[in-house]
Amino acid sequence: MSVSSALSSALTGLTASARQAEVVSSNVANASTPGYARRTVSLSAQVLGGSGQGVLVRGVQRDVDLYLINDRRAAQAGAGDRDVRASFLKQLEQIFGQPEDGASLSARVAAFDAALLEAASRPESEARLTTAVDAARSLANSLNAASDAIQQERARTDQKIATAVADLNSALQQVNDLNASIRSFSGAGQDVSALLDQRQQIVDRIAALVPLREIPRDHDQIALMTTGGAVLLDGKAAELGFAGVHMVVPEMTQASGGLSGLTINGRPMATAGETSLILGGELAGLFAVRDELAVAGQARLDALARDLVERFAEAGLDPTLTPGDPGLFTDAGGAFAAADEVGLSSRLALNAAVDPRQGGLASRLRDGLGAAATGPSGNAALLVALSDALTAARPLSSTGFAPASRSLLGLTAELMSSVSTERLNADVERAFAAARHATLDEMEKAGGVDTDQEMQALLVIEKNYAANAKVIQTVDEMISTLLGL
Amino acid sequence: MITRVGTGDQVLSTLLSRSSANLRAEVMQRGQEVATGQHADLAAAVGGDFSALAAIDHSLARLRGYAANTSEAGLFTDVMQSALQVVSDAATDLGGNVLRGVGLATETGISTLATEASRHFTTAVGALNTRFSERAVFSGVNAEVAPLPDADSILSALETVTAGLVTTADVKAAIDGWFTDPLGFGAMYAGGAGRAEVPIAQGETADLSVTALDPAIRDTLKGIASVALLGRGLLAGDLTARTDLAKSAGEALMTAGESRAQLMARVGTEQARISAAETRNTAEKSALDIARAGIVSADPYDAATRLQDLQTRLESLYLVTARLSRLTLTEFLR
């Protein structure tokens, strides 16, 4: 022990305090930076020649809990998945409308029925017939519009998948690059905390898209794997492949080859079902919207369109038609064939024979679609029969709904109810997933920077600095005393 | 092991901002319910099952259709009934005069009677050709044309058929034959088959199928026309035969009175059914309106109470936010 060693110990104390103050200032400055992990300076007693010689700054530690982060990321992915599904179902509910608003499918059906009834009361009135034809056209148009809206949603979802896959690829590449930088800097003994923060932020972005597990490797490296087991990064970044399209029609599916699936390093990867390794994140949610939810919505709409077409094409309803002729509603102008059910709602059209806008006559609604000449003006028989056909309970030809006999309105109400029920369920799931994510997020943030704590630490550091300085001053006085002897 | 005593600053700010966002979203929803009086999320209010609401809306739409139908069918049958009344009055008036024997003994008396009959015939045919809002009521489905030509054309046709006949029996047979012949009176009739039944309420229809071809109307016209033909030189010079024809026509008119009454009763029954259906539809509409309001309406008292509660909670939250944000060590280290 010597006075000079006391001086050097005090000096290490000053250095350590300065380093601590530096870390505190960095913590306070980043108090609200997302992804920033609180730093602490780890200190230990310096030992020289078997005895203590001041304090040693061992390094700066990032205060992170990888298990908690992994859990939070899984919850985040789940919340993203539920959010995508619930948002789509909400959209679908709005497309079909609710009985409340006049533009909803059920309101259109009811309006058409009422118009037929009123026309039956005064079949000679051109105005009433035109109103009924207009109501029929509106009904067909609203089915077309609903189908188009669903397909537009699918096309938008397809674009979103393309963006997500591109993001995923670039993020994986960035993580890979950061891994390399971290390896070289930490090998050179430099502080890599900032790089680690940056890497964590990027991994968080990936974790929102696919549920992820981060696996630590030696030398501060990480590997990324989906919870399903697909390796996204382990020394080398995986390359995901997806080809977006610009327009989607009901007939296009992943199975038909019209829409792209997902590949990892060129190998196809299932996007749904048990074999899929990417389930549970926003990406899987988007695939579910494009390939399942929207397709199911379209199938129900097509079932409704088919029921509408078949009701009015029934043999014997309109004596002026021969079997095989299209009825009041047509499949793009022609007769409907059972094999063409997919996308029928987008092609549904009012028979040109009754539509004045397509060169037809509204009076054919009264006289029969195939009537060559204007019939007796007071003949309401066909109008009454049409109205009856609309309200009659009829077994469903399609498989989109549970088999039962329904009126057209009953079927429409069921279509709207089924979507609303799904939306409500999805809302509940979304709320649950969001709450879980919020809780874990809160737990993670609880481990973040607490400025009060930092300020308190700063007080201690200030005190330590002053104490060390005092030691130096005292030692100085001691040396002066020695020199002055 | 590091023991943490602090709690990250972001927890508090996240908590506060999330709470206030939730509260404000709820305030908006309740505010909308108070303002519109309806559930903000209708699907949630009906548990995702729209079948009842859609059925009510459909029934209401149909009832609006039925309302138009009942009022039109009501007016239609009213017009029909008053036309039949005119025809019936003419027949009763003429038949009574003939049977009372007024002026049957003299040629001038018969001429006067024939003139009266001719006038009544014109009135009756005019009544049958009544149009209501551009629809000839007795034309059946051919509503755009009047069912019968003018009275003079019918009488001229009969004149041709009876020309040259000299006995009462022959004349009667010829007139009878013409009225039942599809090429006689049937050809004069320009209308079509009877109208289809018009729906006036759920599962109920009104029968508006009476046309000018109805046997009661035909027999009545026949009686009046027989007398009217006497004024056109039928059986000229044979006073007895003319008297006989007038008398038998008068009797026929009286006999047809019963079927006329039945016809009017038939139309009257339809009038009664239509008006009953109208009343029932109105009652059903109010019942459905009430049921519908029960489904879509939010309880305004409930919504207002919740809004009040939310206001208090939101204000407390703002207060807490303000206090907590001042409560940092930094504030005191000065």
Explain the overall architecture.
The complex is a heterodimer of chains A (about 475) and B (about 325). Chain A contains eleven helices and twelve strands. Chain A has about 475 residues and is mainly alpha-helical. Chain A has a three-stranded antiparallel sheet. In chain A, helix 1 runs antiparallel to helix 11 (about 450-485) and helix 4 packs antiparallel against helix 5. The mean pLDDT of chain A is about 90. With about 325 residues, chain B is mostly helical. Chain B contains eleven helices and four strands, in the order H-H-H-H-E-E-H-H-H-E-E-H-H-H-H. A two-stranded antiparallel ribbon of chain B has the order 1-2. In chain B, strands 3-4 form a two-stranded antiparallel sheet. The longest helix of chain B is centred in the last third of the chain and has 58 residues, at about 240-295. Chain B is rod-shaped. Classes of the chains: A mainly alpha (about 475), B mainly alpha (about 325). At the A-B interface, helix 3, helix 9, helix 10 and helix 11 of A face helix 1, helix 2 and helix 3 of B.
Write the layout of secondary structure elements.
The complex is a heterodimer of chains A (485) and B (334).
Chain A: H1 3-29, E1 39-48, E2 51-62, H2 66-96, H3 105-121, H4 126-187, H5 193-209, E3 212-217, E4 221-226, E5 231-233, E6 240-241, E7 262-264, E8 267-269, H6 282-313, E9 329-331, H7 344-347, E10 348-350, H8 364-367, H9 381-391, E11 394-395, E12 405-406, H10 408-446, H11 451-483
Antiparallel strand pairs in A: 1-2, 3-4, 4-5, 6-7, 7-8, 9-10, 11-12
Helix pairs in contact in A: 1-11, 2-4, 2-5, 2-6, 2-10, 3-4, 3-9, 3-10, 4-5, 4-6, 6-10
Chain B: H1 9-36, H2 42-45, H3 51-99, H4 107-128, E1 131-132, E2 135-136, H5 151-162, H6 168-180, H7 185-188, E3 198-201, E4 204-206, H8 215-229, H9 239-296, H10 300-326, H11 329-332
Antiparallel strand pairs in B: 1-2, 3-4
Helix pairs in contact in B: 1-10, 3-4, 3-8, 3-9, 4-8, 6-8, 6-9, 8-9
